């Protein structure tokens, strides 16, 4: 299948890296992002070596490395801070790259946003896909503002609650892992030089990672539930209370948690779409296809760039992809119909 034009739905890390990769190959790319303000948000992220290699391929690695903290080992500790073991982290991106990079998610996204614009990608904000259709030659999109477009390839990189996935008729939905996570960006203790994980404490585990010269990202993996299930206090106070019992550098981080701390709580879910991840010329990637929440529980918060290619999309007879039942599409191509099963284009 020859691809000269593509639509990427979702402007997060996965969608941005994909847009850069496609643009570097001469593909004309439209990227639509639902948020009207396209800048980095969120807490810290640990980026493994294979993801760093992907960032290198699209030309943003040096900028990302400049903003983060590389390290090549992981320390495991008992709840009181006693060292259990220090182990090297595999260099999955190759010997020339760090094993891991701790960074602010917002810094990584900001670098990607700037590069996507510079690459000539047509970025449309405050917009998403309302309906999709395809035939043997093109995929057709109707957007939430009523405009339409036609493409050789459409990619849903729109997260764990992907609208594109639902439009494809893929019934897979997120499932709970039985855990939730408290997260905070805090001042970095002077002795912190790599990621560390604490076991055997009052919660499932606790951990942190340096993300800049003076900041770190810390988390507590807790039982499942919405924030209100833990009490009606502010998020910072709940995290402070539920992180009691951890020593070492975690105790220093805990004592700094207060009303001005940027604390969030999220239920951890997982999702894995069975093969294939595509229907004809339309495919889902990243969290829209594979949100490995169970791996996060095992390793802590890990990994950008989880998108994987499974099989090459096939094309053939016309296939319909549904959209909301509020009206047909207004293009001269295939109509965007109300919900129904999706053909795979073969």
Brief description of this entry?
The protein is an alpha+beta fold and 346 residues long.
Task: Kindly give the count of domains.
Answer: 2
CATH architecture of the largest domain: 3-Layer(bba) Sandwich
What is the average of the pLDDT values? 87
Portion in strands = 25-35%
CATH class category name of the largest domain? Alpha Beta
Q: What best-fitting shape do the alpha-carbon axes yield?
A: globular
Largest sheet: 8 strands, mixed
Which percent range fits the helix content? 10-25%
Assigned CATH superfamily of the largest domain: FAD/NAD(P)-binding domain
Q: How many distinct helices? A: 8
- CATH-defined fold name of the largest domain: FAD/NAD(P)-binding domain
Separation of termini?
13 Å
Describe this structure in words.
Helix content is 20%, strand content 33%. With 346 residues, the chain is an alpha+beta fold. The chain has 2 domains: 5-68 and 101-174 and 270-321, FAD/NAD(P)-binding domain (3-Layer(bba) Sandwich), CATH 3.50.50.60; 177-269, Alpha-Beta Plaits. It has an 8-stranded mixed sheet, sandwiched between helices. Strands 8-2-1-12-19-18 form a 6-stranded mixed sheet. The protein has a 4-stranded antiparallel sheet with strand order 11-10-9-21. Strand 15 (205-210) and strand 16 (215-223) form a beta hairpin. Helix 1 (13-24) runs parallel beside helix 4 (105-118). The longest helix has 14 residues, at 105-118. Mean pLDDT is 87; it is low at 294-333 and 336-346.
